[in-house]
Design a protein that fits this description.
Radius of gyration: 11 Å
Structural class: mainly alpha
Strand content: under 5%
Helix content: 40-55%
Shape: globular
Number of helices: 5
Order of helices and strands: HHHHH
Length: about 70
């Protein structure tokens, strides 16, 4: 499944691109564990390592989740 399709499944009814994750603040990023489907989110991060790096740098407490 393409990463854009995966992202759309994660946020049904919302028109977003993977790069929109770069707009999140650290408190918003901290909500991701337990909120987003893990396998789909992993596929997105594999396709976009720059986003993975941003999320960990912005909110180090979720490093365990994105790894």
């Amino acid at each position: 499944m393409a990463s854009a399709d995966t992202f759309k499944l994660m946020f049904k009814g919302v028109s977003l691109d993977a790069e929109d994750l770069l707009l999140l603040e650290s408190f918003q990023i901290s909500y991701l564990p337990g909120w987003v489907p893990e396998q789909e989110f992993a596929a997105l991060l594999i396709a976009h390592p720059d986003i993975k790096r941003f999320l960990v740098n912005k909110c180090p407490t979720i490093a365990y989740f994105v790894e």
